[in-house]
Amino acid sequence: MKSDRRVTYTKLVLKKSLLEIIHEKPVSKITVKEICEKADINRATFYAHFNDVYDMLDQIENELYETIKRTLDKGWRANSLAELLTGVCTDIKLNEDVCKAILSDNGDKDFLNRALFVAQDKCVSDWKTAAPEADTETLEKIYTFFSHGSAAIVLSWVRSGMKESPKEIASFIEQITNRGLGLLQSDTKEKPIWPISIG
User: Fold this and answer.
1) How far is CA 66 from the centre of its chain?
2) Closest by Cα among 133, 111, 121 to 193
3) CA count, 13 A, side-chain hemisphere, 133
4) What SS3 class is residue 197?
5) What confidence tens digit (pLDDT) does each residue in 17-35 have?
6) Domain spans of the chain?
7) CA separation for the pair 85, 89 (Å, rounded)
8) Top-level class of domain 53-199
9) What are the pLDDT digits (tens) for 92-113?
10) Measured between alpha carbons, how far is 117 from 72 in angstroms, rounded to an integer?
């Protein structure tokens, strides 16, 4: 048990050091030596847990990705767009240090787009059910538009210091999404193709 705690602590310190250095330089310029010196941990210990700097970053991103994926899955089951978006933004807020580093100019700016892409199949399927006349290719383009737009808003929020609450950012994205999808209502004025209740 004590050994497990030591391993957890060591990995945490190493990851924290990488995240701090990312604010100063791109990942391609960061060395294992720099990380170890900042963490005050020897290189042998580093290599006991990570293959290289990129492997460490991948592990950090994968942990955050899985957190966001669980929230997206839960949001779909709750049948609430507002809850889904608030959950994702809350995850990001709770992992503020990680997100600020990953989404910085020196980090992985495409991370959010990849994370949001996980919901595409489910979202397009639900839209197709609500609007059978719409072709799948068009719905996929719509999802790409809204997911990238949402990612851009979240990115701006993170980089500006997350002054608004997760709920406020989620509400803003929800309003834009529903207004845009409202354009796809049929002539019979049926509900928008986003089949999730919006309160």
Assistant:
1) 9
2) 133
3) 7
4) strand
5) 999 999 999 999 999 999 9
6) 1-50, 53-199
7) 6
8) mainly alpha
9) 999 999 999 999 989 887 888 8
10) 11
**For the CA atoms of the chain, what is the radius of gyration?**
20
- List the structure tokens of 27: 């990942």
Q: Which CATH architecture has domain 1-50?
A: Orthogonal Bundle (1.10)
Q: Are 195 and 130 in contact (CB under 8 A)?
A: yes
* 86 vs 198: CA distance, rounded Å: 13
Is 184 strand, coil or helix? coil
Contact 102, 67 (CB under 8 A): no
CB atoms within 10 A of CB 72: 21
User: Locate tokens 């807020």: which residue?
Assistant: 93
145 within 8 A of 116, measured Cβ to Cβ? no
pTM: 0.79
Whose structure tokens read 């994370």? 115
Burial 144-159 (b: 16+ CB within 10 A, else e): eebbeebbebbbebbe
Partnered with residue 80 across adjacent β-strands are 197
Q: What percent of the chain has pLDDT over 90?
A: 45
- Neighbouring CB atoms inside 10 A of 35's CB total 23
What is the rounded CA–CA span in Å between residue 59 and residue 173? Answer: 29
Segments of the chain with pLDDT less than 50: 186-199
